[in-house]
Amino acid sequence: MYEQNYGTTSQPAELTVVTRPLPPGPVLEGWLYRKGIMMYEKGWYKLEGGELYCTPATGDIAIRSCLGKVSGSVVTSEDRLEFTIHTEYKTKSFSFRAERVSEMASWMEACEASVDTSTR
């Protein structure tokens, strides 16, 4: 974003670059399976600025929704690659399943770092 100062007849105009700070915390996104009523449903999830966002598997970005600010996470089953992310929004919890151990580890680390940076 740019702001322009047109100046006056006695002073030349200046151009000032205005930057917005990046949100705190890590940015991580990828496919996860979220536990529904009967089964796990695939969706695209993004953790940015301490907020967890979801886009359905259809990929329609217009339907993206915020699930809330992350307040913690815990591995519920290492064998099945399942973990839960807790949010401050109505103190809700969301259960997920990853496809690989490395993905689950990345999400757990990002959630932990997100909570650490949001409490500073």
Number of strands: 8
Distance between termini?
Answer: 28 Å
Which parts are unreliable, with pLDDT below 50 for 5 consecutive residues or more?
A: none
Q: Biggest β-sheet, characterized?
A: 6 strands, antiparallel, barrel
Q: Strand order across the biggest sheet?
A: 3-4-5-6-7-8
Structural class of the secondary structure composition?
alpha+beta
CATH superfamily: Pleckstrin-homology domain (PH domain)/Phosphotyrosine-binding domain (PTB)
Number of helices: 1
Architecture, according to CATH? Roll
What is the gist of this entry?
With 120 residues, this protein is α+β, with helices and mostly antiparallel strands. The protein is 15% helix and 46% strand.
Characterization of this structure:
15% of the residues lie in helices and 46% in strands. It contains 1 helix and 8 strands, in the order E-E-E-E-E-E-E-E-H. The strands form 2 sheets. The protein has a 6-stranded antiparallel β-barrel with strand order 3-4-5-6-7-8. Strands 1-2 form a two-stranded antiparallel ribbon. A hairpin with an 8-residue loop joins strand 1 and strand 2 (14-17). The protein is globular, with a radius of gyration of 20 Å. The chain starts with a strand and ends with a helix. The relative contact order is 0.18.
